[in-house]
Amino acid sequence: METKESQTTFTPSWLRKTEIPVVIAGPCSAETEEQVFETCRGIAATGKADMLRAGIWKPRTRPGTFEGIGIKGLPWMRQMKMETGMPVTVEVAKAGHVEACLEFEMDVLWVGARTTVNPFAVQEIAEAVRGVDIPILVKNPINPDLALWLGAVERFQRVGIEKIGAIHRGFSNTSEKVYRNRPQWLIAIDFMDRMPEIPMINDPSHICGNRHMLGTVAQKAIDLGYDGLMIETHGDPDNAWSDAKQQITPEIFGQMITDMKLRYDLEDDPNVQGSLEFLRQEINQIDDDLINLLGERMSVVRKIGEYKKERNMTIFQPKRWHEILEKAQIKGDNNNLSDRLIDKFLRAVHEESIDQQEKIMEDRWKPKVSE
Ligand code: PEP
Ligand code: MN
Questions:
Q1: For the whole prediction, is pTM greater than 0.90?
Q2: Which pLDDT band, with edges at 50, 70 and 90, does 232 fall under?
Q3: Ligand 1 probe mutation, 53, 77, 91, 205, most atoms within 8 A of CB
Q4: What angle do CA 253, 254, 256 make, to 5 degrees?
Q5: Cα–Cα distance between 80 and 91 in angstroms, integer?
Q6: Computed over its alpha carbons, how large is the radius of gyration of the chain?
Q7: Which residue has the CA at smallest separation from atom 6 of ligand 1?
Q8: Phi/psi class of residue 66: alpha, beta or left (left: φ > 0; alpha: ψ in -120 to 50)?
Q9: Is 53 in the pocket of ligand 1 (CB under 6 A)?
Q10: Mean pLDDT value across residues 147-176
Q11: Which protein residue has the closest C-alpha to ligand 1 atom 9?
Q12: Residue ranges of domains in the chain, CATH in brackets
């Protein structure tokens, strides 16, 4: 990504002033003064980051591992802020953390995934920042629950915090093999749809859990129009005290950001709008046709429902359903459509068909209501 001179504002957000996504970098954990200084200076030297991060208190899944250096690390971050001129952010999980961060002049606070799941903890942090003008970044909860994520943001809005951002760090899933935390992009997209005024940052480090996929995930986030990236960066990643496998050196971090392709949200550009308009009209027409066809399909489904009702036939006929699915998969393949789409689409249509026939059959036994 190059540095862009133009200052056009595409996102009316507090975080992102230009079309260039915001980049936050720094170690998973602050370990020693030397490690924090080496890493932050290395990041600053690349010129590719806008903000520095470090975990001071680490919410580890199991006890007995490094749980963070604690308050001792805050002056190190403050010194890096003064030296580099970059704002600094750390994770807070309770009111005491907030107080310490305010005392040591941290610029931005973030709420971790293990905290977002707990409304009591989020509320405690929210009360601690009531009346304070400090930006808060809210990571998604570890479980794929959009409402919990939105709810945490709302708790901060209710105490008057105006600068809020979201961080998408993926969702824990025991059957997941590829990612450390499955991204489930649609949850983040739904979030952006529900709260378009909240900037969305992607954290490919915790999604991937390794180094080799970082660039792919980060680029996908930029392709989707995310407002920023948070990337764990460490002077000596292999010997990091936490999350060693996913951290990269400042040099590799700099290279990765340089190599990324910028994408622009050109919604307001009249030239782009003109040439896209024609194709969009075409899409609208096709969507109309699809809906009309679905309506037609359902009227046939209701006729079949009447037929089944007269003969006391069961609604669900497994053989017929598998026949439909198999045929559609072949047709889908020929039309360059994934099996996943065909499966999801037909299941949704099938569910609706069953519901419509159920309504027709509805002459069931009902308890007598006493008058
Ligand atoms: C972190 O950013 O180091 C961290 C603990 O992340 P998460 O809350 O996403 O697990
Ligand atoms: Mn980490």
A1: no
A2: very high
A3: 91
A4: 65
A5: 17
A6: 26
A7: 112
A8: beta
A9: no
A10: 96
A11: 113
A12: 4-259 (3.20.20.70), 270-361 (1.20.59.10)
Question: What are the residues whose beta carbon lies below 5 Å from ligand 2 (ion)?
Answer: 28, 243
* Nearest residue by C-alpha to atom 4 in ligand 1: 112
Q: Decide: 139 in ligand 1 pocket, CB within 6 A.
A: yes
Q: Is 169 in the pocket of ligand 1 (CB under 6 A)?
A: yes
CA distance 142 to 181: 8
**pLDDT greater than 80 at residue 367:** no
For residue 116, which ligand has an atom nearest its CA?
1
Please state the rounded mean pLDDT for residues 330-349: 95
Write the residue with the smallest CA distance to atom 3 of ligand 1. 28
Closest Cα to atom 8 of ligand 1 = 112
CB distance 206 to ligand 1 below 6 Å: yes
